[in-house]
User: What shape does this take?
Amino acid sequence: MPKTADEIASALMGGLYKFVSLAAGDGEATNADPFVAWCKPGIPFEPEDFRFAKFMLIGQGATDDERAADFSLQLTQAAGFSRFVDFVPSVDGIVAGKIEGGVLRPGSAALSEIYKRILESSQIAQLPEPQGINEQIKELQTQAAPLREAYNSGQEAFEAARAEYVGARMAAGMSAVERLKFQSTGPQLKSKLKRARQNWEVEGSKTQYENLLAEIDSLRAKRSPAIWRSEAIDAYNSLPEGENATFGEARMTIPFPGSFASNTGGWTSFALKLENVDELSRSKTTKWSVDGSFGWGSLKLGGSAAGSTAEKLAIKNTDGFSLKLSIAQVPLLRRWFDPWFLRSEFWRYNPATIEGQNNVPVSDGGSPPKGLLVGYPVSAIFVREVEIGMAELHDETSELVKTLKGEAKGGWGFGVLNVGGSYERNSEEKKHKANVADGKLTIPGLQLVGYIIEPTSEKPDMKLPNPKPGLTWVAGG
Assistant: This one.
């Protein structure tokens, strides 16, 4: 039976969510559904857009002028990317924002602004500072510092092995040929994943390093709340490099590893064919959706970076549809954000603030949660090497082919995929043009298509703020 573009797009999203779920369980199914927020449509990037992460804001070049110019470029890149990941997610699983030429702009619910608002409206408990606790923290930090590089290297190797195993397991569930192949290769890949974890443990001192970090966090939670709050505010305000004339104030967020865009490690192959559509189109695409019906189908995007229109783009012949791409989950590092403070028992809203008077929760811990800051992005989901084939791509007169070849203005949005059109990057308008030849569509560059979200409330029904009863509160803050 013929499949519609909407059915195929829903199957694509179901497949991507299934992949993320398997990756969360190291390739094994889990009962927990990950909290994912998908971009609609994806945000185009080029590997060169991540120079700032690869070189960690250290200008490159043979002369001082070249290094200064490259540092300025990296700074602009960092501010731009940080703006894209600076948002508080909606529990519907879609990153809300304005479509500008196919590029999704996060709305006014910026993570950095809401976090700052919570810090400034907080009132902390009057508790004594345990003697010698800061010295203990510094000692633990000194012990952890030389382990960091080996730990990070072990983590990268483990992530690459996990991606390979998850990709093979995913493919086995969608093809009889791949399932037969997985019967012989699966045990080897799983063994490789196990060895990577063991190497991370032995050579990367995984448990030792993580125990040190956990102990540091535990000690920090026992310090004077006044010092903790003061340090959290200082950490937020100590990033002047995040200010950029184009993007305004942006709290710096760095993807890890910084070379992910040009590396092969950590990327997994994903494929979808017509025979997979019936099963996957009924799959969940977000944590709290019931039927996944978010209108993931075929959309014609605005024709310029200044546009914001999106309308239905008809596809009449999906025969022979196939899709393949590479996908990676990239952790996001923020030095200015301290979720442990939000979860502490030693703060509340100052009753004199608007937040205190309205008693708006940071999160009510519900399912789904409600509040000012129900979750925050901890990883970005990227895709690249996208290739789509179907019968309609052979038809030079179809609206789809005309749109993709630039004979009609705009681009194509399919599920989370952004195909063609113009987009804005660092105040410059660029073309994101797909290639159509011999009935196949290939998309250059990479796209940010979604985010793994960490709920702010660690436990169900845990409302934040969650102050301990019987505390004495510091006057004025």
Observations:
- DSSP finds 13 helices and 19 strands in the chain.
- Residues 240-246, 304-308 have pLDDT under 50 and may be disordered.
- Residues 5-126+252-455 form one domain.
